[in-house]
């Protein structure tokens, strides 16, 4: 790590315990990965937000992956289509029409095949992505802003959203519990929150170790298992609507969950 990189120390995002005894070794130098006594796996030191916006923004880290084979590209495209369909299915099944907030919206591409009964709003920490999303969301009556989500949720006002999408987002968020808690203010009572995160309990992580696709240092600062994800949403006062075995198969690298504010 260069000396001029500003970092922030974190308590365990799940139980707020400042100490950890178990440091995990996944070739993450200079970044540390630890497991708390409560079993949550996280990075106790993270680059500060301003740097996320510039040097460590997600799009930048993804840029490194440009040199991929055609076979891989096709496989990714197919996976993307499946993912979009899953999101589409969950929205149609659990979310009433209205405004939907996508936290960590990226360039907004995931709304392309989503029903017009939903008006997209988004937040993203990358300026470039948020600008792109804003252009496409505006056409549908919504908007996207560039900010850390811990700071802007209140600005949307109370009881605004019929749904929220937290897809491939919570693993990046420095304060995942606080975001889940504060999100409730801007959700309608019967709103649904669709969550997708990498599953640290996946077989692939155990086999591939540091080569597991769920590791992205220093972007992925939290690693959830079905147990720790459940605990976090329950502690933040959400009711679990959908989280059955098929949503967290150990053979999948990711897991999906649908929750509703209590
Ligand atoms: Zn803990």
Structure, explained:
With 262 residues, the protein is an alpha/beta fold. The chain has one domain (71-261): Vaccinia Virus protein VP39 (Rossmann fold), CATH 3.40.50.150. It has helices at 49-53, 58-63, 70-94, 127-138, 149-152, 176-186, 203-208, 226-235; strands spanning 7-9, 22-24, 33-35, 41-42, 45-47, 98-103, 118-124, 143-146, 161-167, 187-198, 222-223, 238-242, 254-261. The strands form 3 sheets. A 7-stranded mixed sheet has the order 8-7-6-9-10-13-12, sandwiched between helices. A 4-stranded antiparallel sheet has the order 2-3-4-11, with no helix packed on it. The chain has a two-stranded antiparallel ribbon with strand order 1-5. The longest helix is centred in the N-terminal third of the chain and has 25 residues, at 70-94. It binds zinc ion. Zinc ion is lined by residues 12, 14-15, 17, 36, 38, 40.
Secondary-structure arrangement, i.e. CATH architecture: 3-Layer(aba) Sandwich
Radius of gyration from the CA trace? Answer: 18 Å
Tell me roughly what share of residues is in helical segments. Answer: 25-40%
Number of strands: 13
CATH level-four homologous superfamily name: Vaccinia Virus protein VP39
Cofactors, ions and other ligands in the entry: zinc ion
SSE-based structural type? alpha/beta
Task: Report the end-to-end length measured between terminal Cα atoms.
Answer: 43 Å
The ordered H/E elements are EEEEEHHHEEHEHEHEHEHEE
CA-based shape: globular
